[in-house]
Please model this.
Amino acid sequence: MGAVVGVLVVSGLVSFGGGAAAAEASPPPLLQRDDSVVSSDPIPTVQIDNGYVWAQTTIGSTVYAVGKFDNAREPKAAPGTALTARSNVLAYDIETGALLPFAPQVNGVIKAVAASADGSRIYIGGSFNSVNGKDRWNIAALDAKTGELVPGFAPSIGGSGVYSLTTSGSSVYAGGLFTQASGAARKNLAAFDATNGTVLPWAPQTDQQIDAMVMDPAGANAIIGGRFTQISGDATRRGIGAVDGATGAVDSAWQASETIRNVQTASAAGRAGIFGLATDATGVYGTAWSFGTGATVSLEGAFAAEAGTGAIRWVADCLGDHYGVYSTGTVVYTTSHTHACETVGLHPEQRQPTHRYSEAFTADARGTLGHQPNANYKDWAGTPAPSAYSWTPDWGVGQTTGMGQAGLSITGTGNMISIGGEFRSVNNGQFEGIVRFSTTPPGGAKDSPRLSGDNWTGSSEPSAVASEGVTVTLPANWDRDDLTLTYELYRSGVSTPVATTTADATWWNRPGVTLVDTTATGETPREYTVVAKDGDGNTATSGGITWNAPN
Model:
């Protein structure tokens, strides 16, 4: 418990072992956003009114969002206006952001949603007992077009609720906190025949709740994540594990469970775990959290494991609980309340606690983690790590879950992602509970460098590198979705820049930028401005910087 973990490379093999033998840390570089990464521009999207979106799934261009809310609200509309009744579930078009007619009635919170393989239906799970006026206990199947209950599928789950769902072929898998399924004893995991709702023999057990489930894209396993300290008596599976989708037997060869053990001790059960899981064609991705465990925390952050084997591809040990996760195959997005992430090239802990609520990483490893400076957390130094992209929208946190967070779930398709949660604004604009981002936002990327006018100014002095000239120096600007900015120096009365340079900067690291006007002559006082420009041509202009010839 609390052992330092690193990576030892021997003859091309990677093993996770003691820190003494760890490979030298080589933190991956922070990357400039490219065409594979969505911009930080929030796109108008149907909202919810005073509630939260807990989970999402996508069929074609339709996003299904579930949680706790009574109304949808038109894009950009103010709270309490332009409302359309919805009952804890809605559907919208991810291409347009418009609400769709899909409107089932569910009398309780919904915390899980999954699509059937053929896209004809969605399954919902949560804490409810009525859907469209019919008895449905914590699980139901809905026609994906009409929202009507699917005939013949009416199992029941008894307990606190269903918090995760996944499907494979004709089987529907449910996880949560419960003790029975259609009258058969089950402990937090159950499976049903999609054709008639019959409970299947599949019956692995956990001691604590399941929060996330996905099917392994390269095998027959169901990958489960949650707050448990064992699966079917196997205490080496702590927080995450793989079970056979047919028999329920624990797959002891699945490697990620040997490395990611977020519930370190029995006393920590329920106070740490895996929150979210997602897959693409080659990998399984997860998010981890911990609160008040009284022991060294294994992982807060995100991880990627290889499909099939579960071999760890990378870890991003950003401190702060992590929630939603979604992979495009090349970019992995997470939601969180990260407050320290220097081990993977993002911001260190700030003197004034500062949280960021979303991240974008490469799907592949680009380096190894640096040392974790916080002794309350495991040191993963030397472990393969992704690169982070310079992508950091601003989020207004909400309080409707009682957690005080922003994004809780992510889905997407094509060049779009959808983030759902309890947030009240994005980039200080009116976006509540649901928002879209795109690699090609309408009208192009418009988010500009953040500082301008009197909030961004500098100084001037005679040039030390030219017989006649002026040197202007000021702190670098920063941009929500650009690492590298171009800086142009303008002299009053001259319409073209007299000097140009580029520099990398972030909100937490703004090095000085120096520009030299080598064409300046005479002793006449003059004023300069600096224009910061991102790769999409968006600009911000500094306050005036006056130069006076020395006496």
